Amino acid sequence: MNYKEIAREVKLNSVKLGALSGEERNKALLKIKEALIDNKEAIFEANKADLKKAEEDGIAGPVLSRLKFDQHKLDDCLSGIDSLIGLPDPINKSVFRRMLDDGLVLERVTCPIGVIGVIFESRPDALVQISTLCIKSGNCAILKGGSEAAKTNRALFDVILHAGLEARLPEGFVTLVEDRAGIAELLECDDSVDLIIPRGSNAFVKYIMDNSNIPVMGHADGICHIYVDEAADIDKAVRIIVDAKTQYVAACNTVETLLVHKAVADKLVPALAEASKEKIALKGDENARRFADMEEATEEDFRTEYLDYILSIKIVGDINEAIEHINKYGSHHTDSIITECEGAADRFMTYVDSAGVYHNCSTRFADGFRYGFGAEVGISTGKLHARGPVGVEGLVTYKYKLRGNGHIVKDYADGVSTFKHKDL
Amino acid sequence: MNYKEIAREVKLNSVKLGALSGEERNKALLKIKEALIDNKEAIFEANKADLKKAEEDGIAGPVLSRLKFDQHKLDDCLSGIDSLIGLPDPINKSVFRRMLDDGLVLERVTCPIGVIGVIFESRPDALVQISTLCIKSGNCAILKGGSEAAKTNRALFDVILHAGLEARLPEGFVTLVEDRAGIAELLECDDSVDLIIPRGSNAFVKYIMDNSNIPVMGHADGICHIYVDEAADIDKAVRIIVDAKTQYVAACNTVETLLVHKAVADKLVPALAEASKEKIALKGDENARRFADMEEATEEDFRTEYLDYILSIKIVGDINEAIEHINKYGSHHTDSIITECEGAADRFMTYVDSAGVYHNCSTRFADGFRYGFGAEVGISTGKLHARGPVGVEGLVTYKYKLRGNGHIVKDYADGVSTFKHKDL
Which of A24, A250, B102, B309 sits 20 to 30 Å CA-CA off B351? Predict the structure, then answer.
């Protein structure tokens, strides 16, 4: 069977996973947790083999650290499973009930999306995180991991598959795609895969988005801004900017462009240059460069996600110019205003068209764990379905159930009956 | 300016519409309602010119009746606006508030999607319905109507545009695309149009879906099923089937395939053949044809949306076969079970993977007005964002607002601070 045929089988089976009770799905999660502990040595061994091969292939430091799956990463996975078990069941919740007429009752009930394809690079812990999020939300997962983690992924997948089946999850609740050609097949499964979640580099996510008719949830660019308002506390601003730029430089929620109100540029820019010395390379527009020694920032800089210790700076005339710049150059991810003026903060948070709009804090807070979602499948910069950090809730849709007793539409069209529309 | 440039302008302005209060948007709706009444003669005149041209062009009856915009259609539009004004404001609603730590508060607030492109055929009342739905939900609308309704659309658009601007809606809150080339440009506006809603024939919707990277909300096929269970009341079943097939044959929620449990086929099929005589052409599989005289239904029939007085029939061995058939051949729109057995109904409603799962009632109830949503922009067979009939609520997304006082992530990473995660 090719992956298209497999995906079709998974699709037909997927309703069975959604029909299990929350208790049954939680039991399976617990079983998986125990199986991961019981089989950890085999998993670590597989990971060592992947790491050895990666080193031989001359793969660089940051990738190696993402590839590593040790006791520490396992502990994170296990506590992630614990927190998932603790979350309320996201499916089979009645969201509203409405009597349309006597004996005709409409109900909206949450249910799984169905089949979710996840394509991720290097990090094997993502396999555990995503498959358990999918079990919690009643979705079948088709997973394709990075080839450099092939052995670790296979070991983790085997443990999860067997423990899940033992706990009576239906066949096909999780599938591993192991060859690269499988990606192209997966992207063509319009009739059976309901959602693709890509996790990886910008180029990778863009490739997925451009090459599938299946809806994609995620983000390509993360061009986040901080705007320092005229009413900003300068020390607070500098502290937040340094955190947002340097706390983890390769993250999507790291700040890339700083906008500074012209009234405070003479204080902010030199203070930042001093604080970030030897840590951040600043690039500025003509006005910014009057206040500190830095390279020139071009139009292209304001459209660039550096993922590096580089920050571009633009001086703006007022808050409206800052908002326009963000809505035009940004990626609708996360943007923050630093100000002591509540009115300015409200204006910024209303007019900036991003998933996260922050006041006096670091853009690095944009993260499912920090938001208290337990876990996240990723951060969405799309505006439909789920926006910002996406947890279990984003893996859920709903259906309408309508119960009658021989009700037909003709009676309402002819005026024999009329709708009562009463919420229950 | 071409439509791409126009759409970019609309995008930058769209945040202004979402920043207006609910009261301001309701005032604009009232103003538009009054303007439609004041200008109705000019609108009717324009419509007469469109109708005259359509007749000269030899356009057929059903299209003419959709094209007609008279006092009756106007009254429907006006009462639609009244019901929109009466609905609670869907945006700027705080959905949850959570304290992440002392002084660091996360809030999720509903907001408009942004810019919505709507492409519709023939019916000019759709222009009024959609533009007012967009105003209520704070979205800018870019509208492309059918060329046969060009004069009526222009007249309605002028009235809505001027009344809206007079009521202080921002520039660009509604845009009319009048040339056919505009469609292709609109479909390429990935950077400025957030959502496309196509309303028209299957082929038309499929064309839109295949030719844009912008998310599309709607449905192509509507292959709805009725399954008559072994525990069905036969009279009730026949009454519901006739309604679901004949009450409005060209609708997407009309039944196309009937599945009958083998235990009741000898009663149901002859009774239906008798009741639908001269009204419905039945086509059946081999087993169905043993109980009444009818044409043969092929595999292709079960994948066909007839939009005509034709119904295909298949005899199934049990409820599971019915569910599998629906999930495989259906379009995830609306499917109904006829049974007096609650257990069978529950099983059907859990396992059938459709936006609407019904028990003992006609599939024709799948409609925003009948659900009490006030109005609908269409019915979605996609599973993300909005499913089934989509009202104002489906035109809304959310953003996360995070308010702090100098909070940085480093403190949490270093263990200096820990999250408290307390819902407010």
Answer: B309
Amino acid at site B309? Y
Averaged pLDDT for residues A247-274: 95
Identify whether the C-beta of residue B73 lies closer than 8 Å to the C-beta of residue B50.
no
DSSP letter, residue A226: E
Please give the ipTM for the structure prediction: 0.90
If 0-12 CB within 10 Å is exposed, 13-18 middle and 19+ buried, where does residue B68 land? buried
Chain-wide mean pLDDT for chain A? 93
Contact (Cβ atoms closer than 8 angstroms) between residue A20 and residue A120: no
Q: Which of B41, B13, B23, B26 is nearest to B159 (CA)?
A: B41
Q: How far is A385 from chain B (nearest CA, A)?
A: 4
Q: Residue A191: CB partners within 8 Å, gap ≥ 6?
A: A8, A11
Q: How many beta carbons lie within 10 A of that of residue B103, not counting itself?
A: 13
DSSP for B105-119, please give it.
EEEEEEEE--EEEEE
Phi, psi for A313 (deg, rounded to 5): -125, 135
Size of interface A-B (CB pairs under 8 A): 233
The interaxial angle of helices A125-136 and A150-166, nearest 10 deg, is: 30
* Number of alpha carbons in the 13 Å side-chain half-sphere of residue A417: 16
pLDDT in tens, A298-350: 999 999 999 899 999 999 999 999 999 999 999 999 999 999 999 999 999 99
User: Residues of B with CB below 8 A from A381's CB?
Assistant: none
SS3 assignment, position B419 = coil
pLDDT score recorded for residue B266: 97
Contact flag A387-B365 (C-beta cutoff 8 Å): no
Please check whether residue A219 is in contact with residue A331, taking contact to mean a CB–CB distance below 8 angstroms.
yes
| Three-class DSSP category at A423 | strand
- B115, two tokens: 């810019």
Q: Does A360 touch chain B (CB under 8 A)?
A: yes
Looking at residue B288, what is its pLDDT? 97
Sequence-distant (6+) residues with CB within 8 A of A401 are A106, A107, A108, A109, B349, B356, B357, B358, B359
Cβ proximity of B134 and B25 under 8 Å? no
* Three-state DSSP class for residue B315: strand
